[in-house]
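job 3f2a | input accepted
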Amino acid sequence: MKRKTIFLTGVGSVLTKEAEDKLFKESENAIPRCDSGLSREQYQDLGIPEDKIPQSLKDKERALEFGEEELETEEVFSTVVLPIDQMKLWIQDDGEDTYTTIFLEGGITVTVLEDAMEIDSYIDFVNRSWFERVKDSVLFFFRQKFRNKKNDIILELE
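job 3f2a | predicted structure (158 res):
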């Protein structure tokens, strides 16, 4: 049996170019310091043995701290293909920007642009029976035929 999926518009955020530059500049110039403000090199210059140097200065990676300042981000949109059988729950955020968060099996969450009603209608559309699909195809065919004949009649009258 073919796996049923729906296509939605995923929403994410990435750092702006200015924020990336700032982060890169800070990471290159950052020297890890302990609570007293001393760096590892300063501890070594003072002749303090390695076992007395704080562990935070021994770690090679250090998280950059920007204080109260927040790095600017911008929204990006992409097509997301979600298998219907993996979708467990979707919750719509009714804030300024209306997004829906979909919870999938395995603890994965995806934020999408479509609202909860749209997602539900997409799932209903995909789960139509064979008879409903044939009926819709026939109705579509005849609507197109009659619409074209109606347009031909109007053109002849002009």
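job 3f2a | The beta strands are 5-15, 73-83, 87-93, 99-104, 109-112.
job 3f2a | closed
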